[in-house]
Structure formats: structure tokens, C-alpha cells
Amino acid sequence: MSDIKNVEYGLEKIFEGAQDFLPLLGTDYVEFIVGNAKQAAHYYKTAFGFQSVAYAGLETGLRDRASYVLKQDKIRFVFTTPLTADSPLNDHLVKHGDAVKIVALWVEDARKSFEETTKRGAKVFMEPTVETDEFGEVVRAGIYTYGETVHMFVERKNYNGAFLPGYREWKSDYNPAPTGLKYVDHMVGNVGWNEMNTWVKWYEDVMGFVNFLSFDDKQINTEYSALMSKVMSNGNGRIKFPINEPAEGMKKSQIEEYLDFYGGPGVQHIAIATDDIIKTVSDLKARGVEFLSQPPQAYYDAVPERLGAHRGAFKEDILEIQKLGIMVDADEEGYLLQIFTKPVEDRPTLFYEIIQRMGARGFGAGNFKALFESIEREQALRGTL
Ligand code: FE2
């Protein structure tokens, strides 16, 4: 059993007595393959308030790609683009568009993480590899998860450079202020028809995760469409991966639309935590981040009822919440505030969630209907409903 404590998120062990053969310290980085990494980096700095950290490209000796590393509090994003027509990265780009390729997990021992998962059936992406420079060494190893998405294990206890060996520190004269984004709360994967349980079992068997919340198509549906979702968590609760699959409805599910445009399974949204959602969302809007349309008045009229026992603890100004289009949900332990962006690419694929947890550990099940109706309004405009 791992001795990692949940100081960060205040979660107790989700399961006791199970073997945590894959102790995870947190999310290390998320790497995107994009068409133009220089411009993507500029967008994430300008719109989301990420800070310049590191760079690798022609100037550092690479010939085939360039990568920009950005950070905000505990969140680290890497944007990589191919520089030549024969780069294998192009296949990913043509097939999926700008997309998340690597969800990297910070571990104490990358070789052991690789061994434990591959002996349980994980498909190899990268054998354990030691990279060194004047700042020390990093050990990385990667396995495939759903689609072409990869989990990279990163062991960096003997490294004190900017990011990884081969990258140089990126000092920029352009440094927009952060927007209060703190850490990755969860990352959601969309998988194909009837594949959800296959991947739930994969996370249980290969990664030692547990399924701690499930939603079926009776709970997640609108007049037109439906989906099913199961939330997988690692032993210390720091890493949460909900898995969605489409379900039959009168019209096309948003998950189907994603699968069509992404060209298969992939990361649907990244939820990022903030301590002050009103300030963060106001900042993001002022910087041009586009959010889904506001739920109707009836939704806000029902907020006190949805808060139930937590009504007295609710600190925010409901009018301000409504003005920004933020949604409110509650569970036994507390409440949460959340809002969703529109897709950040032209393909209707990856989007972001901004979430503030006030004790609640859920995922906003009480908001699913309002959220999906809002997504359907966008789908209708795209002609994909
Ligand atoms: Fe979410």
C-alpha cells in the first residue's frame, strides 16, 4: 500500500486493503500534438494565463519538431508540432487534429510502473528510457491507453532542470497574468460504442484503479441524446479519469460527434480546479475564452433546492454565478461550482471544465441535463445533432 497522503485534495483513501501497485504522485504533464505549437502556446498564455517554462526545437538541436512547455500552478502543458512532412507526428495531426497525445503521470519509479502495468497487459509505447543533461536525469516509460492516447510515467527525483533533458529554459518578454488555475482535477476520455466497460476493466486490471462513481443513460440523458459514464480513480484519489461512451438516443450523442471528428477514442475534456471560480471565469471571459451558453432561468431558480443541506454554507453571490453562467451542484459532502468552455479547436473535440469544489467529490451529476442541453444547442448549430 502506498503511503502517499491526500494532503492536497483532502481525500481519504478511496479503497482500503487493495494493493496500490502503481502509486501515482500526480499529473506530471499533458502533451498536445498541434498544427502550430508557437501559436497554441501564445493562445494558452494569452487566454488562460499559462506561463512560459521551457522550449525545444531547431535552436536546441531538434530537426523534426518543436515543443513549448507552459505552467500554471501545478498544471504543466506541452505543445508539440512536427517541422517536416516525414515526421510521424503528422499522422496523429491529420487523424485527430490538435489533440492530447500524452497524459503523463508523476511517479517515484518509472521502471517499476512500466513493469507492473505491462505485465498486466498494457501495450508498450516507450520502453524505460533515461535522459540526462547538466541538471540530472529523468526516467520515462510509456504505455497506450484508449485510442492513440498514452500514459507516460515520469520519474524526476534526480532532476532539477526546467522540464526534461533536451529542453532549455524559456524566458519570454510576454507574460500575461495567471487566471487562478491550480491543478488538473480530472481528465475525461471518450471511447466507442460498448467500450466503456472494457476500459473500466483495463484501468482496474492494468493500473489498479477503482470505479468510484457510475452514471447510466437513465441518469445522463436529454430529450434527444444520452451517454454513459464511469469514473475511475487511483488509490490516493489524486488521479481521476471518467470514461464516457455514447448511448442510443433520438438524435446523435455528443460522444458520437466527438468520435466522428476525433477519429476514434481520445481525451474529451480536462477539468481544472480554481479556488475562486468567479474571478477565474471573469478573467477567462475577458481574455476571449468562449463558454457554453448559460442555463435557463429555471435552472437558477432550482439552485437552492439542488444545494439542499448545503444551502447555508453557500458563499457565492447567486446573481453573479448566474451572470457568468456557472453551474451549481451538491452531494452529501458539499457543493461544487463548474462551467464548460466550447471546444478550443475547430473540430468539436477537446474542451475545458473549470471547477471549484466546496467539499463535493462528485462531477456535477445534477448539472448533466442542463450541460448537455447546452451542448446540443451547439451541436444543432454545427449540424451534428
Ligand atoms: Fe468533468
UniProtKB/TrEMBL annotation:
GO molecular function: 4-hydroxyphenylpyruvate dioxygenase activity; metal ion binding
BP GO annotations: L-tyrosine catabolic process
Keywords for the protein's UniProt record, in alphabetical order: Dioxygenase, Iron, Metal-binding, Oxidoreductase, Pyruvate, Repeat
Binding, Fe cation: H186, H269, E353
Cofactor annotation comment: Binds 1 Fe cation per subunit.
Keyword Metal-binding belongs to the record: yes
Name of the molecule in the record: 4-hydroxyphenylpyruvate dioxygenase
Upper classification of the organism: Bacteria, Pseudomonadati, Bacteroidota, Flavobacteriia, Flavobacteriales
